[in-house]
Specification:
alpha/beta, 12 helices, 7-stranded mixed β-sheet, Rossmann fold, 4-stranded antiparallel β-sheet
């Protein structure tokens, strides 16, 4: 089955006063029809730049797509005439932005913006477009659609504005929806409602590219996922495979930092060091300065080596399963047995069991006594009540 979207070796850079910033470096993954694909990683790893490059929404200058191909339904979007690309934007590929207050025009009413999107891609009259917009606002759970059509964006709450963005993205029945952290600015209750709404309202053959920081959202929503770090895709695969048996040290560190109720820990696992500057990434693997498994090959491996075909992990220190292909640039089957070659001899990340839980050492037997404060002499309030006369 041919994938709906296929990104191959995408590299995007930004020229600034400080120098050239490599936002994405040889990014490759594919999205099949009807599936939800998650893209997870730290801030600045290149997730949004990758998503905006699909519709060529990168500001130029200073941004520039240096190399790569983006095939959508067999056609390369990067080499498509801009007139044909405009017909795809919003119709075949829709975007749900992170902050709807900046995506919606503050000078126009909600109804006018929905009607404009409908009439741009469909040959319908304004009353018919108004009826379609009202129907979709009702579908996404807005209590009074007629009043919402006459309202300005600032007159709606954050959850209602995000529902408007979902209605705008779904009402043209697109083949692909790019959801760029759609629940980051919302509270937990509204987050669950928005995610359920996206899952229920999309058509059976509609695909979603979901960008998020939350691994819990990835587990609940996605079929497959890719992990990005410092402009690179370090691991791809199904959600069950990655959560149960992560191969890349960065993915292992992300999952180790998730608090669990099964095992009690005094402190959460952290990743030492800082994310490298995009102006000067380290040679070889970008994660090797912070990786506890790094050895000499990690720092000397050319960063331009071919990327692994998904599902795989781009790491030279981890043994790859037989079903996952090895990266051509990293022929070493596993970490070196000689400890002298290890660059950072620090403890490994907590290992996972077959059920996905971490095998951690038992807590110490002797614990220091806890200091228990003495109870107050008088109950609250501290002032004594005067006796009534």
């Amino acid at each position: 089955m041919n994938p709906l979207l296929q990104i191959q070796n995408l590299s995007v850079s930004f020229r600034t006063d400080e120098g050239l910033i490599r936002a994405t470096d040889q990014v490759s993954f594919s999205i099949n029809r009807g599936e939800v694909f998650g893209l997870v990683g730290e801030s600045g790893s290149g997730k949004t730049v990758t998503a905006m490059s699909i519709l060529r929404l990168i500001p130029s200058p200073p941004g520039k797509i240096d190399s790569g191909t983006i095939l959508f339904e067999g056609r390369d979007l990067l080499r498509m005439p801009i007139a044909e690309l405009r017909a795809i934007r919003g119709h075949k590929i829709s975007v749900i932005f992170q902050e709807p207050m900046t995506a919606l025009s503050p000078l126009h009413r909600i109804g006018a913006q929905l009607v404009e999107a409908l009439r741009f891609h469909q040959n319908i009259s304004p009353p018919a477009a108004q009826d379609i917009a009202r129907t979709w606002l009702e579908k996404v759970g807005i209590p009074d659609p007629s009043s919402a059509l006459q309202a300005y964006p600032h007159q709606l709450s954050g959850g209602m504005r995000q529902r408007v963005m979902i209605a705008m993205a779904l009402m043209l029945q697109p083949a692909l929806i790019i959801a760029d952290e759609p629940t980051t600015a919302l509270d937990v209750t509204v987050q669950a409602q928005v995610l359920d709404l996206m899952r229920l309202m999309k058509a059976a053959d509609t695909s979603i590219l979901l960008i998020t920081h939350d691994m819990g959202v990835i587990w609940e929503m996605c079929d497959r996922m890719a992990v990005m770090y410092a402009s690179e895709v370090v691991e791809t695969g199904t959600v069950a495979e990655i959560f149960q048996s992560p191969q890349h040290p960065y993915t292992q560190a992300l999952l180790a930092a998730i608090p669990t109720l099964a095992n009690r820990r005094d402190r959460l696992a952290t990743i030492p060091g800082q994310v490298p500057s995009p102006l000067q990434y380290p040679a070889g693997c970008h994660f090797q300065p912070r990786c506890p498994h790094a050895f000499n090959r990690c720092s000397t491996r050319p960063s331009t080596a071919p990327k692994p075909a998904p599902p795989a992990a781009s790491c030279a220190t981890q043994p790859q399963p037989t079903s996952l292909p090895m990266e051509p640039g990293c022929p070493h089957p596993g970490p070196p047995k000689n400890n002298d070659n290890i660059l950072h001899p620090v403890p490994r990340w907590p290992e996972r069991s077959a059920h996905g839980h971490f095998n951690e050492p038992p807590p110490p037997t002797h614990r220091p006594p806890r200091l228990v404060p003495h109870p107050p002499r008088h109950p609250f309030p501290h002032r004594r009540q005067r006796p009534r006369r």
